[in-house]
Amino acid sequence: MRKNLKIAVIGAGIVGLATAFQLKKLDPDLEIVFLEKEDSFGKHQSGRNSGVIHSGIYYKPGSLKAENCRKGYELLIDFCDQNGIEYDICGKVIVAADESERESLENIYQRSLENKLQGLKKLSASEVREYEPYVQCVEGIWVPQTGIVDYKQVCKKLAEILENSGTEFEYRTKLDKVEVSNGKILLNSGGRTFEADFVVNCAGLYSLEVTRLFDKTFKNIRMIPFRGEYYDLVKEKEYLVKNLIYPVPNPEFPFLGVHFTRVMGGGIKAGPNAVLAFKREGYSRWDVNLKELFEVLAYPGFRKIATKYWDEGWMEMKRSYSKRLFVEALRKLIPEVGYNDIQRGGSGVRAQACDKDGRLIDDFLIVEDQYSLNVCNAPSPAATSSLAIGESVAKKVLERVNR
Predict the structure, then answer these.
(1) Burial 299-327 (b: 16+ CB within 10 A, else e)
(2) Half-sphere exposure (CA, 13 Å, Cβ side) for 72?
(3) Quick one: pLDDT at residue 323?
(4) Maximum Cα–Cα distance for the chain, whole Å?
(5) 199 and 371 Cβ atoms separated by less than 8 Å
(6) Cβ contact 5:401 at 8 Å
(7) Can you name the CATH fold of 89-145+222-355?
(8) How far apart are CA 349 and CA 347, in angstroms?
């Protein structure tokens, strides 16, 4: 095995951190350097999610999402146990609010069996209320494997372990240009140059831009940023939710619908919705980047999505600006929730890849070339799956560099 290989990781989110962690486990002699445009790790999707440890119930059997979620779940729990990170496998209910949702709920249950989840139970409306007393529904599923964790703490521990193993973190370092000279990859950032033998691209919302620095012909897909906005249940009404309550999602829409989530450290999140963000990392309704917005609106794939899902998209947009409509959506699950029972919380932006035919890419997508391996699409459940994705990517990288 060649020694003193240097791997550059672009993006210090949870997938990048997990990949570097797995690389170091497989080859402790590797030199690793992170290039991160922010001033710290986990500043975007990794630190702005709902904190759910997903069971894998929703994902197509045999898909990368299904396989990595199941494996990642176990690896994440082991990592937390070994490193003293608190988590709670509290379980969740998925509920059909009315008769029209029974068939979709049954499809989810059958998929859970195909994915070999254990301990799930079909619940009558009265049985659901044994788990969540204030829920209104006609039927439900109990998913015991689902849990909660603070992914910021997971990122913090991964970064700490990596720093202790000699990994370099170059913050405030945005990758501008890539060159290859004498078999070495030269990564340019604001006049500084970093040398590497191979690059792992985990740049999240900007992963496709980084991919195109290596392969200018890679133009088949675009990143569509969807902002998810949360409300917090006021302290006096937190008794309405014991753990996690999810609706039956629209099977044609890659989002789970507004739901209730208990979070580590206390509190109940309500949401998120899913609206087009007018800026790639636009966490406010008022954040706009005209160049990025135009790129999305001009992309034929997005226009086809907008045509297909215009009614859902329009309702999500209205709900973003209308607290009353947001409350109405929540009341379908818990009728007791009132207008004054929630207050605006945080938000996140989901990186969702889309092809030119208007298909939202539902699975994880990894693209390789001679000098790089690019994680081009890693939406939820990427945080749950991160250590499994990282292990898979790490093995591919070592196969490439040790040929």
Answers:
(1) bebbebbbeebeeebeebeebbeeeeebb
(2) 30
(3) 94
(4) 69
(5) yes
(6) yes
(7) D-Amino Acid Oxidase; Chain A, domain 2 (3.30.9)
(8) 7
Per residue in 77-133, pLDDT (tens digit) is 999 999 999 999 999 999 999 999 999 999 999 999 998 898 999 999 999 999 999
Backbone angles phi and psi of 342, in degrees to 5: -130, 155
Q: Establish whether domains 6-47+152-219+363-401 and 89-145+222-355 are of one fold.
A: no
Identity of the residue numbered 267: G
pLDDT digits (tens, 9 = 90+) for 175-184: 999 999 888 9
The domain locations on the chain are: 6-47+152-219+363-401, 89-145+222-355
Closest CA relative to residue 68, chosen from 394, 397, 382, 399: 382
Phi, psi of 208 (to 5 degrees): -70, -35
Q: How far from each other are the two terminal CA atoms of the chain, in whole angstroms?
A: 9
Structure tokens at 119: 């301990």
Superfamily of domain 6-47+152-219+363-401: FAD/NAD(P)-binding domain (3.50.50.60)
Q: Which amino acid, residue 279?
A: K
